[in-house]
Amino acid sequence: MERILVKQTKNNIIMVVEIKDLSYAYGNKKIYSNLNIQIKEGTIFGLLGKNGVGKSTLINILMGFLKPQNGKCQIFGEDSHNLSAKNKKNIALLYEGFISYDFMTINEIENFFSPFYENWNKKIFYDLINLMDLDYNQKLSTLSFGQKSQVVLGLLFAQDAKLLILDDYSMGLDAGYRRLFIDYLKDYVKGTNKTVLITSHVMSDLVDLIDDIAIIQKGGNVHKTTMKDFISNFRCYKVSNDEEFKLKNIHRIENLKDYKKIFTFESFNNLEELEVDFEEKFLGYVGKY
Ligand SMILES: Nc1ncnc2c1ncn2[C@@H]1O[C@H](COP(=O)(O)OP(=O)(O)OP(=O)(O)O)[C@@H](O)[C@H]1O
């Protein structure tokens, strides 16, 4: 059996997450077959895809809540469904509905969480809280949704874990809170070897944040690249509806009323290239429906 290397000695890159030939299905419903993903230490990795392609399933496998049916899924060189306590402590997970201690105050929730984590950093928690100008004695039940999410993020960052898994951090946050979070996250990981795995449906947040991406398609096909390469290499061209064209390697054609949009990794000098943002490129890749 092939051994998964935690450390690639050749260029000294440490892989924090190694997913190799992973298959998973719910009954007859195939989610992945032979999925391969690697996440390098010190990078921010975006797991992207439309609703229902299997992002949360993969996170559940990574967290050991689900077991691979085939293949391997390793974190810090150990099988994710069999992680040692030491490595478990180095993963901070954010998922929907993370907090259910609404009756506590901001102070109390910090006191409640801190003993569970060896590297607990109180200052990080209160730095984030202070950005919101809140009274520490305010009960969580009285906070706005965005403020409560900020408390959750504070609890997550204060763990000072080596790997952060953020499943849809942006749920319900307005543009201001999202920006606050993104800026904080960037500063938080800068100059450290912390690794972040993030899923989000807010594409505009991700452009300046993410290093590597995996775009998952329905059926489990995955396009892996860097954010930079995807943005510069995946192009959108405009072609008039009555123009005959025979082009190779077209990824997707979007038919609009007056013209067609062509999405491709090819470069066509004779066509008009449209300047489109990451969200549109992403939709051009995965399709709108
Ligand atoms: N326990 C389960 N039993 C059967 N099917 C499931 C189960 N959990 C998830 N699924 C299905 O598996 C598919 C992938 O679900 P998953 O939640 O991983 O998608 P996702 O990419 O995280 O979606 P979203 O972006 O909407 O959160 C979906 O079609 C979902 O209905």
Automatic annotation (TrEMBL):
Chain ranges of the ABC transporter domain: 17-243
Residue ranges of the TM segments: none
GO molecular function annotation: ATP binding; ATP hydrolysis activity
Keyword terms of this UniProt record: ATP-binding, Nucleotide-binding, Transport
PROSITE patterns given in the database record: ABC_TRANSPORTER_2
Pfam families for this protein: ABC_tran
InterPro entries noted in UniProt: AAA+_ATPase (IPR003593), ABC_transporter-like_ATP-bd (IPR003439), ABC_Transporter_VariousFunc (IPR051782), P-loop_NTPase (IPR027417)
CDD domains found in the cross-reference section: ABC_DR_subfamily_A
Keyword Transmembrane helix: no
Entries under PANTHER family matching the protein: ABC TRANSPORTER ATP-BINDING PROTEIN ALBC-RELATED
Protein name: ABC transporter ATP-binding protein
UniProt organism field: Aliarcobacter vitoriensis
